[in-house]
Amino acid sequence: INYGVLEQYLGFFAGCDILIADPGAEIDLLAMLGRFDLIRDYINFLRSRFDTVITSVHHAGITLPLLETENIPVDGYLTTVNSPGTFMLPTQELALDAIRNASKPVIAIKPMAGGRFLGEQAFEYVFNEVGVAASMFGMGTVEQVRQTTSAARSVLGLN
Q: Is the pLDDT of residue 79 over 90?
């Protein structure tokens, strides 16, 4: 990691207390290679600048147990969670087991599986069946934002 370049980019987030670090699949690769020293260096670098550091994980079924076993000092994980199992790697079953057994909060991404699983059922799955702490989702139109936030609020009992 070129920490000098990273430092320049992090300047954009000055004043923020929370950083969701999305290094791509590098955390997964480094964990699978057993390079926890590099992961710790990276997380410690971020932690010296942010109160809360959450990392993305692309292969939850493999990477989460490795990070947990090594007690990597993150405050939570961001990973794909959806009923069809889209992008839940290496398999939905392994990913769900790792997510449910994580000692730190999990934030679900892609709860609607890229439009394959819409509405309240998507949020009932991630919150009620899987039990994640939070969920992030993307929308293409204002109407989609209205429909999706309404569905999420309904499941969370906020309507």
A: yes
